[in-house]
Structures are given as structure tokens and as C-alpha cells.
Queue: 2 jobs
Job 1
Amino acid sequence: MFPILYVLIKQNSNEKKHNKFLQKIAEEHRLKFDKTGTYGPLSLGLDTNNKKLVVVEFRGSADYDIFDLKDVKNVKITKKMLPAGYSASKKERIIYLSLDLENKYASKITGITFYDEEDEESIDADIRLNDAKIWDTLIHKNLAV
């Protein structure tokens, strides 16, 4: 029971730290987040008024990007699958999952990683797929037409 309690406390502490950092970015850039989310080392903040998406990855240091959704042409979920039979599982499974933002003015695609099987902090891929779908919908609603 103690290891489970430790993991929950550590996860809660990390989420608070990530949210505090997101709010610091919001203040520095005069943003007001309508929606935020933390998924392992990934934190997202969406300002629907200014059409800005903040992506923070906490891997060693806290690196962040601010995307102007007015410059995003398309958003899509990308999955890399391991075919059935390659593991103990009888069905295919997700080994990598990202939300890809395509820039309007350059042939640049930026991937926001929601799940990577090689990352020890990642949890169940199906849960992350649901999270990615939620953000896909939110971002699509805020793309400039």
C-alpha cells in the first residue's frame, strides 16, 4: 500500500508544479487559459480568446512552445501500432501517440507526444488516446477558418 500512496503523492506534487509553471508562462505572455491538462511529463494550456496553445514538456528541464492557432492549418492524431502477435497480447497495440500540428505557412509539422511506450512515465495508451482526442477536438474548434 505504501508504494501506491507514494506514487499518488508524487504524481499530485508533479501536477501542481506543472500547473504553477503553466500559470507563470500565462502571466509572462498575457494569456488566460480556458483549459489545461497534465499528462505525465506533458502539460498543455489553451487560451481560446487569443487562440494560443502552450505545450510544456518536463524532461530534465521545462521546455515550452507557444503555438498561435491562427498559423495552424490542420491537427491530427498520429498512432504507431505494434501488430498483433508481436507481443503476448493477441491484438495490436499503440506504441506511440502524438497530436500533430501542421503549420499554414511552412511545411512543418510539430508533434505533441501523448504516449511513448519507451517512456517510463507513460501510462495506458488507451487513456492517452482519449486525452489526445479531447485536445484534438478543442484545437479544431479554435483554428482560424
Note: Residues 2-141 form one domain.
Job 2
Amino acid sequence: MVHTCCVFKCYNRATKDTTITFHSFPSKNNKERFDAWVRAVNRQTETGRLWMPSVHNKVCSEHFLETDFKPHTNIRTLKEHAVPSVFPHHPVRLLKTGDTPRREPKKRSNAVNDTEVCENAARRVALDHSYCFITHEQQIQKLKDRIQTLERSLEECRAENKALKQRLKRRDMKCDNLINQLREEKVISEEKAALLDYNFDKATLTLIQNELSAKKTSCNKHQYSESVKSFAVTVHFYSPQAYEYLRSFLHLPNSSTIRRWAASLNCEPGFLSDVINTLGDKLSIDEGMRDICVMFDALSIKKGMCLR
């Protein structure tokens, strides 16, 4: 690799006939000496920053004084604290101007007090944007409204929890009565009754009760409980095909019966009396159901022809 000098406007190159030697920058571990060499070379990048050398950059011996070299050596070696100081081609803007001290700048007095300016500006902002601030009374009223809303929600949850507990209690009593009835009628033994009570939940026992009662009556005279009706309507609503498949194993109402139950509801335009009656029944059970929300909706009605 041919060594060249990295100093500004120095074109020395390492050849066989030249007596000029080339010297590497100190190691970056010796930061003080490395920085001294960089400041002495004083090159700048295109962006105006101080140029930083790499491990391959060299400085030729013409930029050192004779006193910077060790005497009586076959190879020209720099002394430990030698720094390049000869730069004949440096531009004037890069040459050191000496250590002439600069004059102290004149003292200037502040015509405006910064503290007064900040206080006045803050006061003006507070007056101009007073609508952004919430007063203490408004904050208290907002918290009171929030508390009332949470209390109403808590009462509704308590009422719903009470109704669900009562419903669950009635269902448990009905299933217990079923097991006791089977035990008394000697349909099942005590061991089987205990096994039913332990392994099946109340909904499953309700279906078992429906199957046992269906065997004692004909299809036309069989009475379905409200739990079985609710189960049948729910399954038929999600999938009529799945409901028909389920009817092949269980005694459930016919699909036409479920449609007849739905047709008996009053769904004419206007207020639905069945809904109002249901709300009245719930209100008689729980006073927390007094507040309701009425929603209005519209349906697109078009003329059509019905063939019978």
C-alpha cells in the first residue's frame, strides 16, 4: 500500500528514492496525544466539521521539526510527545492566530424584566382561556352525578341478582321434587336418584322430567313446562335443522307449534301491549325496574301479492 500524506495541499508519496518518512497518528487510547495531532492537522470535512483520521492516514516527516525526532537511530522515529507543527500550505483561515486574549464584551442591561413578562403572559392566558378551567363547584357536581349513576347501576345489578337467585332456587326445588317423586313412585332406586342428583345439572334433569311425563301421556295432551318451551324456542331460533334433528331423540314441540306461539304475539305497528304487560310484571317483582328506555324504529313496508 502506497502511503501519502494527509495534510492539506501536501502531495508527498512514499517511493523508493525518497528520504521522507511517514508516521501514523497516535492510538485513540492515548486520547490527549491523538487530539493534539488532529488539532494540529486541522482538516475539515465538507460539512465544516473537524476531520477525523483513520488507521491508514499518515503524516510525512516534513511537518515535524528536527528536534521532534530521536537522534542517533537508523530509522527516523518520533519522540513520545512530538506533534506536527510545520504547515506551509495551510490556508490563512486554518492557521493559528496565537494566544491573544479577546476583549470582554460590553455589559448590557435588560430593558425588560423577564419575571414581569412571564407573570403578565400567564395572567393573560388564564383570562383569555378561562373556559378551559373547571371550577371547584362544577367538579363536585360532576362527581355527585357520577355517584348517582353508579348507585343506580348497583341497584339494578342487585335486583337482577336477586331475580336470578329466585329463579335458580325455583328450578332447584323443581328438580328436587322430580327426584323425590321418582323415588316415591319406585321408578328409580335410592342409589339411582342420588346418582342423578350428583352427575346431572338442573337443566338436564328438566329434560329428563319432560321425557318421563311424555311417556305417561299422548303427544296431543302432553304439557310442556316453561323451561322446556324456552329451550325449544331458543334451539329453533338458532337452527331449525338442528332442532328437527334433536326432536328425533327427545319429546319436544313440533316446529309448527313454535311458529304458532310466535304468531300469537302482537307485533302490529305502534306500542306493543305484550311488552308493556311484561314490564309491568317485572316492576311488580322489582321496584328497580321502574326506569325504562323507549326506542323507536321504522320498517320498510312494500306492497306485495300473497297467493293462497
Note: Residues 22-94 form one domain.
